[in-house]
Amino acid sequence: DRCFIWTPQPHAEGAPSLALQCAPAQAIRLAEYCNEAGMVSFCAVAAPLNGVEDRAVLLWLPKEADLEPLVKQLAGDANVGNCMRRAFAVEPTRHCTLSDAMGRLAALLDEKGSSCAVRVQVFPRYLEQKVISDLADAQRNLVCVSFSHIASLFYADGAYQVGVAQREQLIPEGVCGMDILDAGRPKMNSSICRAQLKLSEALARSGWAEEIAAKPPHRAVDVGAAPGGWSFCLADPSAWGCAE
Questions:
Q1: Where do the DSSP E strands lie in the chain?
Q2: How would CATH label the architecture of 17-182?
Q3: Where does 42-117 show beta strands of DSSP type E?
Q4: Which InterPro entries would you find in this protein's record (predicted)?
Q5: Where do you find CATH 3.30.2300.10 in the chain?
Q6: Is the pLDDT score of 63 beyond 50?
């Protein structure tokens, strides 16, 4: 298997970073997708954590990059949204201890003011209750539903990163699958089978979808133990005719 090695590099102060929590089997593919789409300066798949099923994909963005369009592009892709659990907006600064990270997160919340209503998300999840309890003890304005900002604490590759982002930056309006309030909702309910997801990804990443649509008609035969996924992707009246 291929892997992405993380190499520390300098960043301008305050440059945004994005950390993605995803299904373990899709981590490398998600990193490849981000690289191929030219979304990031570089990215890495973090080392697995003991007892944690999900994996972390770390994205370093150009200092002039706007976070919201990037998250919307990721969440708007059906294949990406199917494997991505949560997105964390974090500072590039890496903290060696949880205490240091919590101190920085508290400072960021203080900068937002007492009226800032915050939803907290933490990776890995087993740290979440401690982070929430510590912030609550310090009289932070923590809410679960009507929040204006999302406070993130993320641990990967032996270090912690923190950040505070506006709700709209991490939960783009009109994009399904990224709202942390609906994390338990099944995604891609319209998918017929895994073949459909794989073919949709291949068409999107290769650019063949546009080429195929430009040169109709074509013919395909969908056969197998559970046909249907290929037909669903290819049965565009303007491009394909499919028979199962």
A1: 17-22, 42-45, 55-60, 84-90, 118-123, 149-156, 159-166, 218-221, 240-243
A2: 2-Layer Sandwich (3.30)
A3: 42-45, 55-60, 84-90
A4: RNA_MeTrfase_FtsJ_dom, SAM-dependent_MTases_sf
A5: 17-182
A6: yes
